[in-house]
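Ops channel
N.P.: pipeline sanity check, posting one input/output pair.
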């Protein structure tokens, strides 16, 4: 079966917690930001629980964890301070998750378009993908600053499909968190959740169509979710 006639016609991936383990760099950057403001640090485990929804949400959750109120103007200033610290060091401690390179390269070699849809800003996303040698494999990259509301809203996924010229039902999304699964469901897109990401509930409790242990399980998941697979 050729790539053009198979399902899915494209595979989209979340970035943080799915393709990459970025929590160590986010953790260090957040603590440096807080230290510069005279605030105490958080543990890595605590920061992992704050990831998802973009940097403004990260800062809001951090200050909620400090039991301090934060007005929007102050939050936005702290967001900019965090980004100034994070962007230059975004790949110092960050690593590819297991199977990320093999899976993306196998799909690309098979002629199946792939892409990234993330709440992280576009420029930082592209820099990280370039660092790991993945950007040239991508047919579409949609960052959280692309225009539509961030995940768990469906707009970023719908925009990616529009750029690919594909219907949502022909595209598979792979993520690790509530934001990913909820966004895909809202878009009407099949979704696979990867265990071990940034979710307090655990991948098996997110309501994804299928759950896998590693990203190199994506191709098997594609076959299992393909229309008519059960009948076969």
């Amino acid at each position: 079966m050729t790539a053009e006639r198979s399902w899915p016609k494209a595979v989209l991936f979340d970035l943080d917690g799915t393709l990459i383990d970025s929590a160590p760099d986010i953790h260090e950057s957040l603590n440096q930001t807080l230290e510069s403001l005279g605030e105490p640090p958080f543990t890595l485990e605590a920061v992992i629980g704050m990831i998802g929804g973009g940097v403004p949400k990260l800062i809001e959750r951090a200050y909620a964890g400090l039991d301090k109120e934060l007005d929007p103007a102050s939050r936005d200033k702290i967001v900019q301070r965090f980004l100034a610290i994070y962007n230059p060091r975004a790949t110092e401690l960050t690593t590819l998750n297991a199977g990320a390179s093999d899976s993306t390269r196998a799909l690309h070699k098979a002629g199946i378009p792939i892409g990234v849809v993330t709440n992280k800003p576009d420029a930082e996303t592209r820099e990280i993908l370039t660092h790991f040698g993945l950007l040239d494999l991508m047919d579409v990259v949609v960052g959280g600053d692309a225009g539509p509301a961030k995940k768990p809203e469906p707009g970023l996924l719908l925009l990616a499909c529009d750029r690919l010229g594909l219907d949502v039902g022909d595209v598979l999304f792979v993520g690790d968190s509530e934001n990913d699964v909820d966004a895909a469901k809202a878009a009407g897109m099949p979704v696979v959740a990867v265990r071990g990401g940034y979710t307090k509930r655990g991948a098996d409790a997110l309501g994804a169509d299928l759950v896998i242990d590693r990203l190199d399980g994506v191709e098997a998941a594609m076959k299992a979710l393909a229309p008519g697979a059960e009948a076969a």
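N.P.: looks fine end to end. The radius of gyration is 18 Å.
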